[in-house]
Amino acid sequence: MKKNNNTQQRLTKHLSRRELLKGAALGFATLALPAGKADASFWDAFFQKHFREMSKDEVKEVIARLEKEYYQKYKKKFHIKTTEA
Fold it and tell me: pLDDT at position 51, please?
């Protein structure tokens, strides 16, 4: 019986909400990929399209977040600019 109890303990791993959401998002993203379209150019086009669809306020927020992240990572100030398509 000990062996069965040990197996049960290994099968009942508790996931945090964050781990569950990450796994679900990864699974949905995998299902959403068209077959043979997982190359970098596909993702570049995908993100470029969605970047253009953001409102001006959303773009400003993303730029501010990126500049802050880059400053923390490289200890230099970055000035990111965007141009209209």
Answer: 66
Under 8 Å between Cβ of 77 and 67: yes
Q: What is the pLDDT of residues 27-65, one digit of tens each?
A: 777 777 665 555 666 766 777 676 667 788 888 888 888
Residue 59's identity, in one-letter code, is: V
80 Cβ neighbours under 8 A, 6+ residues apart: 63, 66, 67
Contact between 39 and 32 under an 8 Å Cβ cutoff? The reply is: no
Q: What is the pLDDT of residue 8?
A: 57
Q: Show me where the domains of the chain are located.
A: 2-74
* Residue type (1 letter), 21: L
Dist. CA 34–CA 44, nearest whole Å: 15
What's the whole-model pTM score?
Answer: 0.40
Query: Closest Cα to residue 66, out of 85, 56, 80, 52?
Result: 80
